[in-house]
Structure formats: C-alpha cells, structure tokens
Amino acid sequence: MTTLDELEREVVACRRCPRLVAWREQVAREKRAAFAGETYWGRPIPGFGDPRARLLILGLAPAAHGANRTGRVFTGDRSGDFLFAALHRAGLASQARSEHVGDGLRLTGAWIAAAVRCAPPANRPTPAERDACLPWTLRELELLPRVRTVLCLGAFAWAAALRARAVGGLSSPRPLPRFGHASVWLPGDLAGPALVGSYHPSQQNTFTGKLTPAMLDAAIETALDLFPRE
User: Fold this and answer.
1) In whole angstroms, what is the distance from residue 125 CA to residue 24 CA?
2) What distances in angstroms separate CA 37 from CA 17, 33, 119, one per listed residue?
3) Is residue 10 classed exposed, middle or buried when 0-12, 13-18 and 19+ CB atoms within 10 A define those classes?
4) How many helices (H) and strands (E) does the chain have?
5) Which residues pair with 113 in a beta bridge?
6) Contacts for 78-81: CB closer than 8 Å, 24+ residues apart
7) What are phi and psi of 134, to 5 degrees?
8) Do the Cβ atoms of 11 and 44 come closer than 8 Å?
9) What is the pLDDT of residues 160-189, one digit of tens each?
10) DSSP element (H, E) containing 19
11) Which of 35, 55, 221 lies closest to 140 in space, CA to CA?
12) What are the chain's domains?
C-alpha cells in the first residue's frame, strides 16, 4: 500500500494540468519583489500534518506567493496566519504562525490539504482542475483512516469534498447539502466523513469581518465535537 511519503512524492511530480503548471512556474520565476531573494517551490503542494488525524482541513488552492513559494499549504501568507492562529488556540497546532517549512510547526490531530494542489491564476481553479486533483484527496483519506470530519474552507472546498464522494464510489447525499458558514452534513447511513463548512480565511473575508477569529474557532470546535475525542 502507498505510504503518505510515497503519495507526497507523486503529488509533487504531478503535471496533469497545463494551465496550472505554466502559472505556478511563471510565478516562481518572476517572483514578488518582497521575496526576490528566495527560491520558490513552484510545484504542487502536498498535504501535511498528523498521520493519526481525525480532522481533515480542506482549503481552496495554494497561494501564488504563499505555499507556491514555501512548499507547504497555508504557509507564508495571511490566510495561513489566520488559520494557524485558530488551530493553535484549538490545541491542534504547536505554534500560531507558519512562515516556512522548517519553522517547527507541528499539527496534532489534524491534516491540511488543498482541493487543488497548484496555485491557479487569479486564485480561480476550474472544475476540470478540481476533478484532476480529487484522486490525491481520496488517496490521502485512504491513508488517514482515522479522519472523521472534513472542515471545508469555502464553497469550492465544500463542493470538492462532495464531488470526492462520487468519484470515490461513495453514495452522494440527495439533495446535495448547501454550503454556508457553520453548515454541517452528517453521513448518517452513508459511509465517509462528516462535513463542516467555514468561510475561507482569505484576506477579503478576514479584513471585512465576514470571517472573524471567533467564527473560525466555533467552526473548528464544531468539527471536533461531532465525534468523541480519544
């Protein structure tokens, strides 16, 4: 059976989507002035965290000058600062900030991945690019058998989690549950993890107050409380 390390190597080598390959590599060459002296990762971003995780946190896609630069999802950008601060408050992250891969951050009980593994132009992946990445998420879930809940950061991640059920051969709920902040879908008699929705911690959402620290804390707490903790 594939291990998480082996899966990571496969993800990093992926070149399935020509548009995403071209964009992630262009950004890595041209860089942002503030990071001109850094070597950008410029490849797909694997998930990371605790192999014994009970919570999978699913984001949208790597930020062009965040994870596409650092090589770790939500690392090195303001969205990540907001998320990791919340995970630290919840006891899931060893520190409240993550600036680079070697900064000592460790997750306990959680795994973080993106629905699309490459930075997309204008932060807008297509449905076809989402579907091309779904097998990576499905294989991660196979290798993370303790996961009971997926916290979906934004409507795109929510739709990707539901789409993954169909692609992975699981029954899809009918009608499809609608995304909203603090929305919850329980599998009931269907197999697979529960879903909890949260607005994405993008600057647009956090600067305008659409998503506050208290709101994200509550969504994380909801996700953790759906099943008994060990």
Assistant:
1) 12
2) 28, 8, 20
3) middle
4) 8, 6
5) 58
6) 78/203, 78/206, 79/200, 79/201, 79/202, 79/203, 79/206, 80/201
7) -55, -35
8) yes
9) 999 998 888 777 788 899 999 999 999 987
10) helix 18-30
11) 55
12) 4-225 (3.40.470.10)
pTM summary value: 0.95
Distance of CA 210 to the CA centre of its chain: 20
Phi (first) and psi of residue 18, to 5 degrees? -55, -40
Q: Which residues contact 167 (CB under 8 A, 6 or more apart)?
A: 131, 134, 135, 138
The dihedral formed by the CA atoms of 30, 101, 150 and 55, expressed in degrees to the nearest 10 = 180
Give the type of residue at 35.
Answer: F
What are the structure tokens assigned to 214, written together? 């208290």
Give tens-digit pLDDT for 121-152.
999 999 999 999 999 999 999 999 999 999 99
